[in-house]
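R.M. (postdoc): so does anyone remember the format we settled on? I'll just put the C-alpha cells first.
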C-alpha cells in the first residue's frame, strides 16, 4: 500500500493559521513589567585536601601479615637477610619482605 505524501509546508501553513485564529479569539492582556532583583550567587572555595607525603620502608612480615621488623628503603638487603634468618630459625611460618608506605609527620 502506498502512503500519502505529506507536504510539510502545507501542514506548517495550517498550524500558523490555527495559531492566528486562537490569538484573535483571546483578548490581549497587558503584561506588567516584571522587575526581579537578582541576587548574586555566592561562590565558595572548596578546601583542597593536602596530600600527605609518604615515605617508603621495607617491612619483614610473618605469614599472618604481622610486621616483625621495619627497615629503611635503602636497606633492602638487610631486610631480605632478616627474613631468611627468621624463616630458617625454626619457626613454622615463613617470613617475607614487603614494601610499606607510611605518612611523614612534620
Amino acid at each position: 500500500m502506498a502512503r500519502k505524501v505529506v507536504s510539510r509546508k502545507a501542514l506548517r501553513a495550517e498550524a500558523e493559521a490555527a495559531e492566528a485564529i486562537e490569538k484573535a479569539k483571546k483578548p490581549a492582556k497587558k503584561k506588567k513589567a516584571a522587575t526581579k532583583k537578582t541576587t548574586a550567587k555566592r561562590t565558595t572555595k572548596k578546601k583542597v585536601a593536602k596530600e600527605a607525603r609518604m615515605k617508603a620502608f621495607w617491612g619483614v612480615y610473618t605469614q599472618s601479615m604481622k610486621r616483625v621488623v621495619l627497615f629503611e628503603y635503602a636497606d633492602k638487603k638487610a631486610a631480605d637477610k632478616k627474613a631468611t634468618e627468621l624463616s630458617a630459625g625454626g619457626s613454622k611460618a615463613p617470613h617475607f619482605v614487603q614494601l610499606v608506605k607510611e605518612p611523614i609527620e612534620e
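R.M.: ...and that's the designed sequence above, right after the C-alpha cells. Also worth knowing: Residues 54-103 form one domain. The beta strands are 54-61, 67-72, 96-103.
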